[in-house]
Specification:
- The complex is a heterodimer of chains A (281) and B (247).
- With 281 residues, chain A is an all-alpha fold.
- Chain A has one domain: MetI-like (MetI-like fold).
- Helices cover 80% and strands 0% of the residues of chain A.
- Chain A contains 10 helices and no strands.
- By secondary structure, chain B is an alpha/beta fold.
- Chain B has one domain: 3-Layer(aba) Sandwich (Rossmann fold), CATH 3.40.50.300.
- Chain B contains 9 helices and 10 strands.
- In chain B, strand 7, helix 6 and strand 8 form a beta-alpha-beta unit.
- The longest helix of chain B is centred in the C-terminal third of the chain and has 16 residues.
- Classes of the chains: A mainly alpha (281), B alpha/beta (247).
- At the A-B interface, helix 7 and helix 8 of A face helix 2, strand 6 and helix 3 of B.
- Bound molecules: adenosine-5'-triphosphate (ATP) and magnesium ion.
- Adenosine-5'-triphosphate binds next to helix 1 of chain B.
Chain lengths: 281, 247
C-alpha cells in the first residue's frame, strides 16, 4: 500500500495524453451538434406559419411580468405543501411498512390494518380522497376543524404514504435473511436488528424510487387548489382568465421545472450511487 | 465442567427429520468438530444451539442452565454464544469497526470508546488493524471471515459456533482463517465447528463427531475417528473423502 512518488512510463504518459485529446474532441463534437440541432429547431418553429399568433398568446413578456408575482405566491404554497407532505408521507409510509413486517399472532390485527391501509389508499384516486377530506369532513361541522389546506395536505399524505409504504416494504424484504440471522446471533433483539441492520440497508436500497415518488408528489400537491387554496397553477389560471392570454401557464410551467431540477438531480445522483454500489464498486 | 450439553435433540423440516435424538457434550476449552455428508444436519445443529431454530424435542444446556426451557429469552442466550457463518454475513452498510462494535455497544451497553478500543485490539491481533475503517465489500473473503470471527469474539462468548467458515474461501485464503482458529484454541476458547476440512478437524479438534442423517454415529478423539472408525457409515464416508483427495 505504499504511495511513493511514481514516475509514469512513456507508455502511460502517451495513454494519458491520448485520453485528454479524446475528451477535448468529444466536448467539441457535443457543442457543435447541440448548436446545429438548436438552430434547426429555432428556424423550424419560428418559421412556422402560425408562429406569430402562438408567440402572442403564449409568450407575451409583459403579461409574464404581470403574472409572475401571483404565480410565485402560489408556488410558495406548493413548496410548503411539498416539504410538509413529503416528510409526513415518508414517515407514515415507513411506519406502516414496519407494522406490516411485525410477526406473531399478537400483531395480526395491526398487520391486517396496515395491509388494508396500503390497499385502500393505493386504490383510491387522489382526487376522491382530496374531495372527501376537504369537502366532506368540513361538512361535519366539528369543533376545531383544521383549515382546508391542512385537510388537503392530509389527503396527499394519506395517499402517498400508501405507495411509499410498499416501496419501504420491498426494501425491507430485499435484505437477505442471513443478515437477520447474523444480527440475532449477536444477541440483538428484533427491534435492534430492524433499527441497526435491516432498515439502514433497506432505505439505502430504495432511496431512488422513494425520491421518484417525491418528484411525483411535487406535481400532485397542486391538486389541493381544487378545494380552494391558490397554488401556482391556479394562480396562472386566474391570471389567464383576466388577460385572455396563456402566458401565465408557461410562467408556472417553467417555475415548476426549475423547482423540480434540484430534486431530480439529487434522485439521479442517488440512483447512480446505488447502481455503483450494486455492481460491487 | 461442561459448557454445552445437548440431549435427545430432534428437529424436523416439514416432516423430514433432520436431527434425530442427537446428543452432544462439549467441555470447557474443548474443540468439537462436526463432520458428515452434506445434509447430515451440521448447520441445523449449530443453529438449534444458538436458538435460531425451534426444537421439536430434547434439551440444550449452556453452563448447566437449560436454554431450551420455555420462557428463556433467546436474546439473552445468544449474547453468550458467538456464531460465524459460511457466508461471513458482515453488515455491508457498516465499516469493519462498526460491524464489530455494534453488539458490544447495543447489546452489552459498552461505551463507544471502550468497544472500539477492544475491537482495535482484536483486529490488531489478527493483523487487520489497518482495515478498521474499511467497508466489507473492500475486503478479501479471508479478511471478511476473520472480521466476522472478531465480531463474534467481541461479545466475549462462552461458546463459539463455526459453520464451515472456510467453505466459501479460495484455497490460498483458507490458511489465514484456520490459523486464527488454532490461536483461539490455544487461548482456551470453547468451540463447536462444522467442517469439510478433515485435515483441519484432525489437527485442531479434541473430539470429532460424525453426523449421519441427524444422528451422531461415531465420536471420539480424531486419531480414533479418522484412524480406526468402528461404524460402517463412518468408514464409507471417510473412504469417499479419501477418494476425493481431501484427507
Ligand atoms: N430452513 C429449512 N427448511 C427446510 N429444510 C431445511 C432447512 N434447513 C435445512 N433443511 C434441510 O435439513 C437437512 C440438513 O441441513 P443442514 O444444512 O443442517 O445440513 P449440513 O450438514 O449443514 O449440510 P452442508 O454440509 O451441505 O452444509 C437438509 O436435508 C436440508 O435440506
Ligand atoms: Mg451446513
Amino acid at each position: 500500500m505504499s504511495t511513493t512518488a511514481h514516475v509514469h512510463s512513456p507508455a502511460q504518459r502517451a495513454r494519458e495524453e491520448y485520453r485528454r485529446r479524446q475528451t477535448v474532441l468529444s466536448v467539441l463534437i457535443a457543442a457543435a451538434s447541440t448548436a446545429a440541432v438548436g438552430t434547426l429547431l429555432a428556424v423550424a418553429v419560428t418559421g412556422a406559419p402560425g408562429w406569430d399568433r402562438v408567440r402572442q398568446s403564449f409568450l407575451d413578456p409583459r403579461i409574464a411580468r404581470d403574472a409572475l408575482p401571483r404565480v410565485l405566491d402560489g408556488l410558495w404554497l406548493n413548496v410548503r405543501l411539498l416539504v410538509c407532505c413529503a416528510i409526513g408521507a415518508l414517515l407514515l409510509g415507513l411506519l406502516i411498512a414496519i407494522l406490516r413486517t411485525l410477526r406473531g399472532p399478537v400483531f395480526f390485527p395491526i398487520r391486517a390494518l396496515a395491509a388494508g391501509y396500503t390497499y385502500t389508499f393505493r386504490g383510491l384516486p387522489l382526487i376522491i380522497v382530496l374531495y372527501l377530506l376537504t369537502l366532506g369532513v368540513p361538512g361535519l361541522r366539528l369543533q376545531g376543524m383544521p383549515s382546508v389546506l391542512v385537510l388537503g395536505g392530509l389527503a396527499l399524505v394519506l395517499t402517498y404514504s400508501g405507495y411509499l409504504a410498499e416501496v419501504f416494504r420491498a426494501g425491507i424484504e430485499s435484505v437477505h435473511p442471513s443478515q437477520l440471522a447474523a444480527a440475532r446471533s449477536l444477541g440483538l433483539t428484533y427491534r435492534q436488528t430492524m433499527r441497526h441492520v435491516v432498515l439502514p440497508q433497506a432505505v439505502r436500497r430504495v432511496a431512488p424510487p422513494l425520491l421518484n415518488d417525491v418528484v411525483a408528489l411535487q406535481k400532485d400537491v397542486g391538486l389541493v387548489s381544487l378545494a380552494g387554496p391558490i397554488d401556482a397553477v391556479r394562480a396562472a389560471q386566474i391570471a389567464t382568465a383576466q388577460s385572455f392570454n396563456y402566458t401565465p401557464y408557461i410562467v408556472a410551467g417553467v417555475l415548476f421545472v426549475l423547482l423540480a431540477i434540484p430534486l431530480i438531480a439529487v434522485t439521479d445522483q442517488v440512483t447512480l450511487r446505488a447502481a455503483r454500489r450494486q455492481s460491487g464498486g | 465442567m461442561d459448557v454445552l450439553r445437548c440431549r435427545g435433540l430432534r428437529k424436523e423440516f416439514g416432516g423430514q427429520v433432520v436431527l434425530d435424538s442427537l446428543d452432544l457434550t462439549v467441555a470447557e476449552h474443548q474443540v468439537v468438530a462436526l463432520i458428515g455428508a452434506s445434509g447430515s444436519g451440521k448447520s441445523t445443529l449449530l443453529r438449534c444451539v444458538n436458538l435460531l431454530e425451534e426444537l421439536h424435542d430434547g434439551t440444550i444446556e449452556l453452563d448447566g442452565e437449560e436454554i431450551s426451557a420455555p420462557g428463556v429469552d433467546p436474546d439473552q442466550v445468544r449474547r453468550r454464544i458467538g456464531m460465524v457463518f459460511q457466508s461471513y454475513n458482515l453488515f455491508p452498510h457498516l465499516n469493519v469497526l462498526d460491524n464489530i462494535t455494534l453488539a458490544p455497544r447495543r447489546v452489552h451497553g459498552r461505551s463507544r470508546r471502550e468497544a472500539e478500543d477492544r475491537a482495535r485490539e482484536l483486529l490488531a491481533r489478527v493483523g487487520l488493524a489497518a482495515k478498521a475503517d474499511t467497508f466489507p465489500d473492500r475486503l478479501s473473503g479471508g479478511q471478511q471471515q476473520r472480521v466476522a470471527i472478531v465480531r463474534a469474539l467481541a461479545n466475549s462468548p462462552r461458546l463459539l459456533l463455526l459453520d464451515e467458515v472456510t467453505s466459501a474461501l479460495d484455497p490460498e485464503l483458507v490458511g489465514e482463517v484456520l490459523t486464527m482458529i488454532r490461536d483461539l484454541k490455544a487461548e482456551g476458547m470453547t468451540m463447536v465447528l462444522a467442517t469439510h476440512e478433515m485435515s483441519f478437524a484432525r489437527d485442531v479438534a479434541d473430539q470429532v463427531c460424525f453426523l449421519d442423517a441427524g444422528r451422531v454415529v461415531e465420536s471420539g478423539p480424531p486419531e480414533q475417528v479418522f484412524g480406526g472408525p468402528t461404524q460402517p457409515r463412518t468408514r464409507q464416508f471417510l473412504a469417499r473423502i479419501i477418494e476425493a483427495g481431501r484427507l
